[in-house]
Amino acid sequence: MLLVIDVGNTNITCGVFKEKDLIGSFRITTKQPRTSDEYGLAICELLNYRGITAAEVEAVIIASVVPGIMHSLKNGIMKYLKRNPIEVGIGTKTGIKINVANPKEVGADRVVDAVAAYDLYGGPLIVIDFGTATTYDLISKDGAFLAGITSPGIRICADALWNETAKLPEIEIRKPESILATETISSMQAGLVYGYIGQTEYIISKIIEESNIPDIKVIATGGLGKIIADSTKTIHIYDPQLTMKGLRLIYNKNKK
């Protein structure tokens, strides 16, 4: 079995593959500081809860945008799972060409999403990841990473709304039935969700306009992305497991 780990700014998302099948997944919060023992024990306990023993995990691959936790996380994996994890980075075989000014600045998560989307759906395409930040990446017909746009994620926008205002409450992020809100909570929900739908549609249209690439498929993933994907025809496919699928594909390209 293969354990894939996506270390994001908010959550560490883990998935277990048996061949091509994702047989289990779980999340750990990223922001809480942990020792290598705590990481190792947490992963083993969550695996055991799903009926998977540490000994059944034959390999581990990690994509991370949080360098500060990697020493403890990798040591925990080596100590408790007895596996030396592959970390996606410079020198990792991905099959995606990074044609931007500084390829080292492209986050591992974006590369992994691009690998999965291109392999599963073909190019050209726009890959959108609705995470802590929302990223929009343009991938060419021949699998080159051409450009990337980064904006605050919808939860960051929501946090700013209720943390920086004296009277606005913390709310559930969901799409209200109408944009014509008549009370505070639905007013905030309307501004957040409909505003984010508008941002998404405009950025997609500008990418298509300026790239002058016809017939671009738009693939979305990540957290609250389903709310947006279900509300706009500009997103063709929502794949919540895109990053985990990409990690499996990259592992297969790099396993010895």
What does this structure look like?
This protein is an alpha/beta fold and 256 residues long. Helices cover 37% and strands 24% of the residues. The chain has helices at 36-49, 70-80, 108-121, 154-163, 184-211, 225-229, 242-254, and strands spanning 2-7, 11-18, 21-29, 59-64, 86-87, 97-98, 125-130, 133-139, 144-152, 217-221, 237-238. A six-stranded mixed β-sheet has the order 6-9-8-7-10-11, with helices on both faces. A five-stranded mixed β-sheet has the order 3-2-1-4-5, with helices on both faces. Helix 1 packs across helix 2, helix 3 packs across helix 7 (242-254) and helix 4 (154-163) packs antiparallel against helix 5 (184-211). The protein is globular and about 55 Å long. The chain starts with a strand and ends with a helix. The model has no long low-confidence stretch (mean pLDDT 93).
H/E element sequence:
EEEHEHEEHEEEHHEHEH
User: Approximately what portion of the residues adopt beta-strand conformation?
Assistant: 15-25%
Total E-strand runs: 11
The helix content is 25-40%
Largest sheet: 6 strands, mixed
Uncertain stretches of 5 or more adjacent residues: none
Count of helices? 7
Which descriptor suits the 3D outline?
A: globular
**Would you tell me the overall average pLDDT?**
93
Structural class from helices and strands?
alpha/beta
Radius of gyration: 19 Å
Q: Which strands sit side by side, in order, in the main sheet?
A: 6-9-8-7-10-11
How far is the first residue's CA from the last residue's CA? 15 Å
